Amino acid sequence: MSRSYQENLLKYRKMFTPDASLTEMEAAIRFQRLVQIGSAADYAAEFEWLRSKISRETYHASLFFVGLKDEIQNRISQCGEMPSTLEGMIRRAKQTEDQLHEERRLGELCFNCGKPGHIARNCRKKW
């Protein structure tokens, strides 16, 4: 095995190793992104462990979170504790989007791509 392959394997194992300090929302998001890296038995064990850590409500909130735009996901992740209910996650996403919209409006940034120098109707990114 090549060195980079081994390093990547270790990195992925760390990402998917059970961690007792995970919040319920972190476990739900990890559950959403879980893929088999090693054996089927290892994958099944991680799958069952994560499944046991999350409620249906938190699972639905994580589904909503994973589907959000990266920019909104990043902002929500940086705001401290993430909401563990779907209603709370929707509220946080709307607030975050409103904040981003206001920042762009005040900074005269394009609403489409977030960059200065043009407005949304002239944005090349939409093409």
Give a quick precis of the structure.
By secondary structure, the protein is mostly helical.
Care to describe what's here?
With 127 residues, the chain is an all-alpha fold. The protein has one domain. The protein is built from 6 helices and no strands. The protein has helices spanning 3-16, 24-33, 40-53, 56-67, 70-77, 86-106. 14% of the residues are buried. The mean pLDDT is 84. It comes from Coccidioides posadasii (strain RMSCC 757 / Silveira). One of its GO terms (molecular function) is zinc ion binding. InterPro entries: Znf_CCHC (IPR001878), Znf_CCHC_sf (IPR036875). This is CCHC-type domain-containing protein. It holds the Pfam family zf-CCHC.
Task: Indicate the overall shape.
Answer: extended
Helix share bin: 55-70%
| Cα separation of the termini | 43 Å
- Total helical segments: 6
Number of domains: 1
Assembly type of the chains comes to single chain
| Class from helix and strand fractions | mainly alpha
Largest sheet: none
Q: Compute the gyration radius: what is it?
A: 19 Å
Pfam family, one: zf-CCHC
GO molecular function: nucleic acid binding; zinc ion binding
InterPro entries: Znf_CCHC, Znf_CCHC_sf
Domain CCHC-type: 110-125
List keywords for this structure.
about 130 residues, mainly alpha, Znf_CCHC
Indicate the topology.
Blueprint: H1 3-16, H2 24-33, H3 40-53, H4 56-67, H5 70-77, H6 86-106
Helix pairs in contact: 2-3, 2-4, 4-6, 5-6
